[in-house]
């Protein structure tokens, strides 16, 4: 193709132009090729209100009754309408009549060529067009005719760029996490001070799903009162009486040190109270690795779980602490099934600036990964937030990176930045949040009072998957 041809082709793509009735001849044709994707089905269902299981239920669609979306006609008819309204005759076309016959089903992944051809000019600006849809195997799936009034006035307008649409099923990412634990052994877990209905029911729900075996540690009477308030039975659950929240945290840590539980779950107490017992110099659960918190967010506009760290433990981490923060997050990503997580080290800019300390830390962390001081992940930084999660933003900045735009893990410069970033995604973007603390002898399920039931279950799933993965790594 010559440079002139390419220029004309690009110009055609930028504009939409019709053919008037007088310009059209019998035999003129136009085509559109489209591959049926899940998002197409979901969008059409949202717009039309059509929830016929043959079109939107994947399990039902596998049965012999499945006739495909085009067999129902609306999707195929819409594609034909798109060709008539944008290509031939184009803008200004008025539909009068359409008769279509659906001869074969179309399923996910099928590619359909839609073709319209003028077969008759009927006078009074009326046109008759043959309409066909053929799949990738050359089989006819739709055929019929359309009668339209062709435009009289020439139209040439800039082609509208359709907005990017994201469809999100609330809790879908977490449902997959929870489902992944179904074959795993439940984890014996000390639930610290579960003295309100929300924290208690979160633990009991996880128990009923076979995710944990809760050991309820706290004032017995207050736990029993919380159970009455929630309408839950405590039959069969172990309760270790402790007079107050500080004592409950210390008792839970002692259970870990004695090998009687393999995880700790925060109940109705402040994070600082629990952490004080966990980090105690002689009686706590310290290891050679710094403890850090990892959020696992299900963000409606992001295609995969997004890990953000550290939003709860280390306020202003130095380089050595950041090394542990990064490694903890990588280890969790491995447990969740990501073999080589992409780690974006965040700052306000994407270039190293000696006046911005976080850019220097980012560069150092990447070099530490090169030298094997951080393992199992693919690091890049400094990266600004937009460059880390948006391919469009990364391309606009000319950033060439295997991480930029598609990060699995976001490492914030400090706790303030991580916490604000996570809370903004939760409250402005509708994200669900699960959380866990790693780097201690056992994982700490760090729930929030604002967490939903599914978020609490997902946090338990994180601990269960992490423990299972660590056990597998040691065998």
Verbal overview:
The chain is an alpha/beta fold and 475 residues long. It is 38% helix and 23% strand. The chain contains 17 helices and 18 strands. It has helices spanning 3-14, 38-48, 53-56, 58-61, 68-72, 74-86, 172-179, 197-208, 220-230, 245-257, 271-278, 319-335, 357-370, 385-389, 391-396, 415-428, 453-474; strands at 15-17, 29-35, 94-102, 111-123, 126-134, 140-149, 156-158, 187-192, 212-218, 238-241, 263-266, 292-298, 306-309, 342-346, 378-383, 409-411, 432-438, 444-445. It has an 11-stranded mixed beta sheet, with helices on both faces. It has a 5-stranded antiparallel beta sheet with strand order 2-4-5-6-3. Strand 9, helix 9 (220-230) and strand 10 form a beta-alpha-beta unit. Helix 8 packs across helix 17 (453-474). It is elongated and about 95 Å long. The model is unreliable at 1-12 and 60-72 (pLDDT under 50).
Gap between N and C termini:
59 Å
What percentage of the residues does DSSP assign to strands (E)?
15-25%
Look at the helices and sheets and give the structural class. alpha/beta
Instruction: Tell me the major beta sheet.
Output: 11 strands, mixed
Number of helices: 17
Q: Per the principal axes of the C-alpha atoms, what is the gross shape?
A: elongated
Estimate percent helicity: 25-40%
The averaged pLDDT comes out at 87
Spatial ordering of strands, largest sheet: 10-9-8-11-18-17-12-13-16-14-15
Rg computed from alpha carbons, rounded to a whole number of angstroms:
29 Å
- Number of E strands: 18
Low-pLDDT segments, ≥5 res: 1-12, 60-72
């Amino acid at each position: 193709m010559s440079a002139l041809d390419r220029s004309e082709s690009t110009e055609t793509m930028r504009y939409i132009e019709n053919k008037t009735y007088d310009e059209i001849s019998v035999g003129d044709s136009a085509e559109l090729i489209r591959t049926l994707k899940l998002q197409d089905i979901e969008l059409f269902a949202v717009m039309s209100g059509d929830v016929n299981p043959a079109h939107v239920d994947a399990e039902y669609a596998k049965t012999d009754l499945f006739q495909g979306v085009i067999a129902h006609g609306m999707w195929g008819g819409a594609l034909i309408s798109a060709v008539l309204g944008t290509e031939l005759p184009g803008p200004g076309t008025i539909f009068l009549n359409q008769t279509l016959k659906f001869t074969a089903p179309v399923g996910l992944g099928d590619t359909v060529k839609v073709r319209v051809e003028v077969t008759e000019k009927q006078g009074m600006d009326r046109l008759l067009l043959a309409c066909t849809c053929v799949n990738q195997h050359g089989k006819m799936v739709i055929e019929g005719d359309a009668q339209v009034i062709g435009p009289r006035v020439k139209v040439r307008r800039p082609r509208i760029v359709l907005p990017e649409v994201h469809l999100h099923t609330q809790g879908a990412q977490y449902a997959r996490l929870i489902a992944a634990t179904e074959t795993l052994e439940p984890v014996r877990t000390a639930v610290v001070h579960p003295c309100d209905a929300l924290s208690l029911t979160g633990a009991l729900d996880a128990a009923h799903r076979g995710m944990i075996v809760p050991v309820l540690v706290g004032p017995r009477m207050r736990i029993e009162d919380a159970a009455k308030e929630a309408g839950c039975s405590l039959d069969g659950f172990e309760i270790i009486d402790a007079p107050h929240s500080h004592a409950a945290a210390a008792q839970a840590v002692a259970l870990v040190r004695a090998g009687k539980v393999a995880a700790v779950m925060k109940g109705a107490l402040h994070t600082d109270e629990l952490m004080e017992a966990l980090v105690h110099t002689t009686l706590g659960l310290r290891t050679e690795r710094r403890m850090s918190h990892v959020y696992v967010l299900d963000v409606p506009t992001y295609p995969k779980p997004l890990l953000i760290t550290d939003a709860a433990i280390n306020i202003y981490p130095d380089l050595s602490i950041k090394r542990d923060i990064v490694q903890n997050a990588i280890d969790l990503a491995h447990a969740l099934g990501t073999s080589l997580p992409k780690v974006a080290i965040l700052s306000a800019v994407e270039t190293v600036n000696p006046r911005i300390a976080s850019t220097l830390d980012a560069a150092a962390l990447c070099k530490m990964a090169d030298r094997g001081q951080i393992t199992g992940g693919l690091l890049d930084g400094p990266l600004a937030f937009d460059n880390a999660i948006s391919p469009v933003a990364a391309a606009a900045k000319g950033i060439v990176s295997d991480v930029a735009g598609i990060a699995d893990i976001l490492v914030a410069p400090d706790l303030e930045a991580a916490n604000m970033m996570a809370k903004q995604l939760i409250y402005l973007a509708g994200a669900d949040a699960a959380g866990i603390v790693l780097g201690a002898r056992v994982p700490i399920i760090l729930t929030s009072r604002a967490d939903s039931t599914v978020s609490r279950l997902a946090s338990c799933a994180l601990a269960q998957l992490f423990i299972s993965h660590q056990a597998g790594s040691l065998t």
